[in-house]
Design goal:
7 strands
Length: 107
């Protein structure tokens, strides 16, 4: 998909389901997607994101460029255990009871 939103390492449109190779070996328990990006939560609470990041919405600490074509760990949340994410509004509910808002590259 556009800007790598599907996480396959390219920007091709897909008409059939395909395994996201970059997530192989990780137990993904939730997926949330906006129109141009996706968030993945693992069983251990790690969060990865891919897709368009021109406004910093992937929370990798950069803006611009062509996007993140494969899911990448969000380092700012690495020490936290995330229970739930919302891809449209960029929220992450942490096990410790905190709600983090991840808008437009704050992290």
């Amino acid at each position: 998909g556009a800007s790598g939103v599907l996480g396959h390492g390219d920007e091709e449109r897909r008409l059939e389901p395909k395994l996201v190779a970059a997530l192989e070996g990780r137990r993904v328990v939730q997926v949330a997607a906006g129109s141009r990006h996706a968030l993945f939560v693992t069983k251990g609470g790690a969060v990865l994101s891919c897709g368009r990041g021109d406004l910093g919405q992937l929370s990798h600490g950069w803006r611009g460029g062509s996007g993140q074509l494969v899911p990448k760990l969000i380092a700012a949340l690495e020490a936290r255990r995330v229970m739930h994410v919302d891809g449209r509004w960029h929220r992450a509910l942490l096990r410790e009871g905190w709600l983090w808002h991840l808008p437009m590259g704050v992290l």
